[in-house]
Structures are given as structure tokens and as C-alpha cells.
Amino acid sequence: MKKFELDAKTDIAWCPGCGNFNIRTALISALQELNIEPTNVVFSSGIGQAAKMPQYINANYFNGLHGRGLPVAVAIKASNPSLTVIAEGGDGDMYGEGGNHFIHNVRRNPDIAHIVHNNMVYGLTKGQASPTSQKDFVTPVQINGVTNEPFNPLAVALLLGATFVARAFSGDLEQTKNIIKQAILHKGYSLVDIFHPCVTFNKLNTFSWYKNHSYYVDEDYDASEIKNAMEKVVNTDMYALGILYQKEGKSSFEEQLNIYKQDETPIVFRKRDIGKVNNLMKD
Length: 283
Fold this sequence. Notes:
By secondary structure, this protein is of the alpha/beta class. About 35% of the residues lie in helices and about 15% in strands.
């Protein structure tokens, strides 16, 4: 059995045909190929169908409150930078309830991979419009159609200084796997927004819809130029797929804290720091 796979009898509570299955396959393959041990991986997620992902992978995870996957992931990485930390959730969880954390943790540049399953709808809570739902999209709640313009997470991330911005499509396993691998390897905050269908509550944005409304950037595309990336992400008639922006050399949140300047021991293992915390709790 592959080290990140769970027992075959594990009940995975996603609808048959859900794009989350493909994302899970790509994610496990990425971790396997990077040869990372499950004990060195920590997932952090909130609430939602996508946020269940860590429960279906053989690794450490923290499953918390709706929209609160990112702050926990950042805290885990700051406490022990040797860990590979992945924040996982859906477009509602991460861009809606967790929108404030999304904005400010992009600014901090923590060394984590942020994987967002973007199906343009709330899947767990029965099909309400999400921040990325398209205008005029009809739901059981928005019976006259969505009136707001969809939130553009990639444009926001770029403007806030994200050092890795990518978009994938769950229908393309190999490309999705490779993008996730690069996001994990990148030093700094990495956003991977993954298009995938909700086969139960979103009959518009299907596998074929995503296929027909997206394209991969050319091999000679220069991802080091933010101008190129902005031109790609603001075009929502045809969505660009691939690594759209990557910048190396920016200090991570953990480096900026200077907590490891003289002592490389993770905070969680420092006896002197634990003693200080205990004393503070007594006071």
C-alpha cells in the first residue's frame, strides 16, 4: 500500500464523479513522488466537502472551523518549519468564510501550500452560490441568479504579493500533480486554485465546461513577470492554467519572525520556551 493511501475500505463521503476524487489522486501522487514521509506532512482545513480531504489521506491533519484552515496552517509552520504544511479547502471555505485570513496570510508569505478546490458553488451546504460563482448562476437560494461579479482570487493574491500563483483543472491529473509538486517545493506562500465540478449542485460548470473555457500557458511563458500573470488572470472568458507567477528570494513569514536565528530547534521542542509558557499560564 502506498504510504499516503488509506485502507481501501475507507468510506469517502463524496458524490460519485466529484472532482475531489481526482484532486486527491493528484495530491497523493505529488507527495509520493516528492518522497516526503507522512509523519512530516500536516494538513489544515476548515469545513466543507473539500475540507474533508485530509481525512482521506494518511498524514497528520487539523480539521477546524469553517474558514479557519489558513491561520492554523501558518501557526503549525511557524512552530515547526521542518514540516510540509498544506492548507486545504473549497472556494466558499477559503474565499468566503476564510476570506480575511486569505488576504492577510498572502501578505505574510508563510511557507505553506494553499490548495483551493474551486467548483464555484457551496457543495456541503446544498448548493448556495459561493464567492466564485458566475454572475446569473441560479441556485436554490439565488433563485433569480447571482448578481455579484465573481471573486478573482488569483488577481487578489498577485496584488497582495503572493510569490506563487497557479491554476489547475482536476480533469488533467498529470498537470495538476505537477503543479501541486511545484507549489509544495516553493519557498513561500503558494496558491493553487483548482477548477473541478460539483456534479450534484452545479450543472453549469461541468468537466466539459472547464475544458472548453480554459487553456494552458505556452512553454515559453515567463512566469517571473507579474505583468504577464495579471494579464492572464483578469481574462475570465478563457481561464489560463498552469504556474502563472513564481518569485523566489522573498523572506518567508517564519524567517521574518527571527525565531530560528540562534536556535534551529522547533518551538514545540524548546524546553526553555515551554517553561516560559507554563509560568505565564500560572500567572
